[in-house]
Amino acid sequence: MVKSKKFNEHPFAYHEEIELEISTLTNLGLGLGRVTVANARVKVENWVVMVPFALPGERVRARVFRNHKNFSEADLVAVLQPSSHRVAPRCALFGRCGGCQYQHFAYAEQLEWKRRQVAELLEHLAGIVFEVAPVIGSPREFGYRSKITPHFAAPRPDRDLPIGFLRQGTRFDIVDVPRCEIATDAINEKLTVVRAATQVRATAGEFSRGATLLLRATGGIVTTDYDEIITEEVGALKLRFLARDFFQNNPFILPAFTAYVGGQAAASGARLLVDAYCGSGLFALAAAGSFERVAGVEISETSVAFARENATANGIANATFLAGDAAAIFAGLDFFPGDTAVVIDPPRKGCDESFLRQLFAFGPRAVVYVSCDPATQMRDLRHFLAAGYELRAVQPFDLFPQTRHLECAITLQRGA
Predict the structure, then answer these.
(1) Domain count along the chain
(2) Strand locations in 299-364, DSSP E?
(3) Active-site pick, 298, 372, 390, 408
(4) What is the pTM of this model?
(5) What is the pLDDT of residue 218?
(6) How are beta strands 389-397 and 407-414 bridged, if at all?
(7) Residues of the chain with pLDDT under 50
(8) Helix (H), strand (E) at residue 310
(9) What pLDDT does residue 4 have?
(10) What local confidence, expressed as pLDDT, does residue 6 receive?
(11) Catalytic: which of 181, 298, 407, 408?
């Protein structure tokens, strides 16, 4: 890494090597330790240093490449005293490719640390201490992803074209990835073909800029067409949607995941269910058998069309789907709020203020909030607590083994 002209020399010089013990992991999957700095320039105690691919309990040597106002970032140089939970990563690119953070971490410990991180986010961002259930792990630790999107930068005549994912710690540098260990076998077989074809096209001058490729599996078939219709089986359900549309990428854990979300909504005593970010109908249709009526609301009209088709194809007659206006999401519903549970699964950024105002104005009996980013979820939780909802359960699911990512479902019920 090239030294920036604006490099801040406090408290470490550029590429200064230090030894430290790693005490915890951040929610970005980075090892975190604290050191006392005493040199000719500065003296400071308990200075935070973050080191990727270092594990709690390890003593490491690290090379500092950036100093921030309150902490430093460093590259791992050597593990001096390894954790008993350190394992050999399956992928030869681990540590260079930024896709995985935990392949060197025993899977049971990955789950425990993800549970701890959710508990810490609850305390620090929502201001409450609450028991977080053990993380429900994926049936597959590797070979589970049913979709990957490798990409490449603008081709250059003086070198081969890397096709893969961002290099760890960078924003633009791409690591060439001929095989992804967390993707399904079918995707990896297709990836070999797609990479070769892309290299040929690049050599022929077809690309003047970079691009993103799509590989999405449905059964044993892999498509690269964004407009292809995918059929995914979740338990007894068969759901169709466009390859480009959002759909969870670990089909092996989805039966347990959807059953939990629907079960929590039904356990509130509600007779009616609203899926407020319904997409092609995953949660609404999986839970329909537990409710008298189900309504899915979605801004995307194409997704609503697929949800309606999916309801018909699966013989589900008590589910309706509405293309809702973002400014009036609940306006078309005739559900009595006191008998209604709402499932929400918003984008990574969480719920915007307009949606929360509408949700609280509607005032459902219970809410099951599903999120792929517990940090924004816990930020939003504060608004639910202020609106009179009580936290009843926190259940993380590991849809993304070997990475720092997870899904978390929290159950909220309106207080008296």
Answers:
(1) 3
(2) 319-323, 340-344
(3) 372
(4) 0.94
(5) 86
(6) antiparallel
(7) none
(8) helix 301-313
(9) 64
(10) 80
(11) 407
Q: Of 166, 159, 225, which Cα lies nearest the Cα of 190?
A: 225
Q: How would DSSP label each residue in 20-71? A: EEEEEE-TTSEEEEEEEEESSS-EEEEEEEEEET--TT-EEEEEEEEE-SSE
324-329 long-range contacts, CB within 8 A, separation 24+: 324/297, 324/298, 324/299, 325/299, 326/299, 326/354, 326/355, 327/354, 328/358, 329/276, 329/297, 329/355, 329/358, 329/359
Rounded to 5 degrees, φ, ψ at 76 are: -75, 125
Q: What CA–CA distances, in Å, run from 390 to 67, 119, 193, 204, 337? A: 41, 16, 52, 61, 16
- Residue 97, in any domain of the structure: no
Domain boundary among 182, 203, 228: 228
| Helix/strand number for the chain, H first, E second | 7, 21
Query: What's the pLDDT at 283?
Result: 98
Tokens found for residue 176: 């060439």
Each residue's pLDDT tens digit, 28-46: 999 999 999 877 677 888 9
Q: Are residues 210 and 116 in the same domain?
A: no
Q: Please indicate, yes or no, whether residues 256 and 121 belong to a single structural domain of this protein.
A: yes
CB atoms within 10 A of CB 14: 16
Tell me what pLDDT residue 56 has.
98
Quick check: is 109 catalytic? no
Cα distances (angstroms) measured from residue 352 to each of 130, 363, 383, 384: 24, 17, 11, 13
Task: Tell me what pLDDT residue 90 has.
Answer: 98
Question: What single string gives the DSSP state of each residue in 143-192?
Answer: S-BSEE--EE----TTS----EEEBTT-SS-EEE-S--TTB-HHHHHHHH
Instruction: Check whether residue 40 and residue 157 sit in a common domain.
Output: no
Residue 372 falls in the annotated catalytic set = yes
Token digits for 335?
A: 């559900």
Same domain flag for 208 and 238: no
Q: What is the pLDDT of residue 330?
A: 86
Interatomic CA distance for residues 156 and 61, integer angstroms: 36
The amino acid at residue 75 is D
Residues 128, 59, single domain; the answer is no
Residue 2 has a pLDDT of: 59
